[in-house]
Amino acid sequence: MPSYKLTYFDVRGLAEASRLLFHLAGVEFEDHRVAFGGSEWEKLKEKTPFGQMPVLSVDGFEIPQSAAILRYLAKKFGFAGKTPEEQAWADAIVDQFKDFFGQFRQLIIAQRSGKSVEEIEKVKKEVVIPARESYFKILNGLLNKSKSGFLVGDGITFADLVIAENIETLEKFGFFNPSEESKLDGLRKKVYTHPNIKGYVASRPESQI
Amino acid sequence: MPSYKLTYFDVRGLAEASRLLFHLAGVEFEDHRVAFGGSEWEKLKEKTPFGQMPVLSVDGFEIPQSAAILRYLAKKFGFAGKTPEEQAWADAIVDQFKDFFGQFRQLIIAQRSGKSVEEIEKVKKEVVIPARESYFKILNGLLNKSKSGFLVGDGITFADLVIAENIETLEKFGFFNPSEESKLDGLRKKVYTHPNIKGYVASRPESQI
Q: What is the CATH number of the domain that holds B107?
């Protein structure tokens, strides 16, 4: 087994689905966490392939970009989908998340850059809430047709990990109400109570994002 | 060989890299083009998997999301990268494009929703130009290290098609100057002059996006 090191900030964020995947697969990895705004990241930034994190190192070979890392590991560990068609659907769901997150990110940027309450409310109302509506519609459509309760095929894939984590973040930001979204809440529960995952989820560091 | 049908608007946009890939691989496909704002799209929208296009149909089995479609085809046709590590890097580049495009899209939305000249200039200056700077830096870094002139390994992959198409769009929007970006312009030329691709590029419908 190669030596895996996953480097990211000390939050769930864009690395958490890969961390969950390591636990799901029962594969050891170094969970290297870098403090926000500290000197370590200042020094590290220029050495990363794309000037950003997460970065996965596999015996020293580096891979950037969260979804690329996750897909690489999912294929290695057998959680990428069982057929080329299942793989394409898992990819499509993760791409849909990325599209949604690109819009949700506008809210995070507005909050962090000190925009006014009115401007932040405008981003919520005009960008995040309509984007969430179509995103949840797509996900619920998939879960309504699913016999396994997972998003693709009859077992857990990396797409389930991405969506479960995103639901967690949306709840922490006030954009997810479990009582209104029972299917999505059920998916998160299925992921978080998986025997290989639940111990990690119970003990992991708390973070809003 | 299965029967492929690619359905998208009558522009390059998010389907063009897949169209180029069919030509590159020499695989026949139905290039189904739907008019913007017409009644066909109104009727079709509810029938698509995610309420959006492009959609690929493979003997009637549908796959949504542009990058998922492209990756699925690239794996089938042998243009996804030669090793799991090359595949991860091709994925990472396409994800980087998606991150950039999520920001570029804010400009398209501002223009189409009738924002003022000042607001559009603000999006250009505060969002698109900084995003382009880090995106081009990443791509140039890869091309500077490339021996083949392609982004990953020693041959053309789906990542090259995505980036070549995006350069074309950026030029049409005034965000790409070939004389300032010779490496990126060289990549576009390598893709567009490929023997399997150049005939299609010369004859395809003209569109800004």
A: 1.20.1050.10
With a cut of 90, say whether residue B173 has pLDDT above it: yes
CA atoms within 13 A on the CB side of B86: 19
Check pLDDT > 90 for residue A38: no
What's the sign of the alpha-carbon dihedral B189, B195, B199, B201? negative
Q: Is 90 exceeded by the pLDDT of residue A178?
A: yes
Q: Identify the domain containing residue B40 by its residue range.
A: 4-78+196-203
| Ramachandran area for residue B65 (φ above 0: left; ψ -120 to 50: alpha; else beta) | left
Say if the Cβ atoms of B95 and A49 lie within 8 Å.
no
Considering only CB atoms, A138 lies closest to which of B50, B71, B76, namely B50
ipTM entry: 0.96
Tell me how far apart the alpha carbons of residues A159 and A89 are, in angstroms, rounded to a whole number. 9
CA of B1 vs chain A CAs: smallest distance (Å): 15
Number of Cβ atoms within 10 Å of the Cβ of A40: 13
The mean pLDDT value for B145-169 works out to 97
A91 contacts chain B (CB < 8 A): yes
**DSSP 8-state secondary structure symbol assigned to residue B128:** I
Tens of pLDDT, residue by residue over B71-97, are: 999 999 999 999 999 999 999 999 999
SS (H, E, C) A93-123: HHHHHHHHHHHHHHHHHHHHCCCCHHHHHHH
- Domain count of chain A? 2
Considering the domain architecture, whether residues B53 and B106 belong to the same structural domain is answered as no
Cβ pair B92:A63 closer than 8 A: yes
Q: Of the candidates A61, A68, A102, which has its C-beta nearest B91's C-beta?
A: A68
Residue B208 within any structural domain of the chain:
no
Q: Are A170 and A107 part of one and the same domain? A: yes
Mention every residue, 6+ apart, whose C-beta is less than 8 A from residue A89. A81, A151, A152, A153, A159, B63, B68
Answer yes or no: is A54 within a domain.
Answer: yes
- Looking up residue B42, the CATH number of its domain turns out to be 3.40.30.10
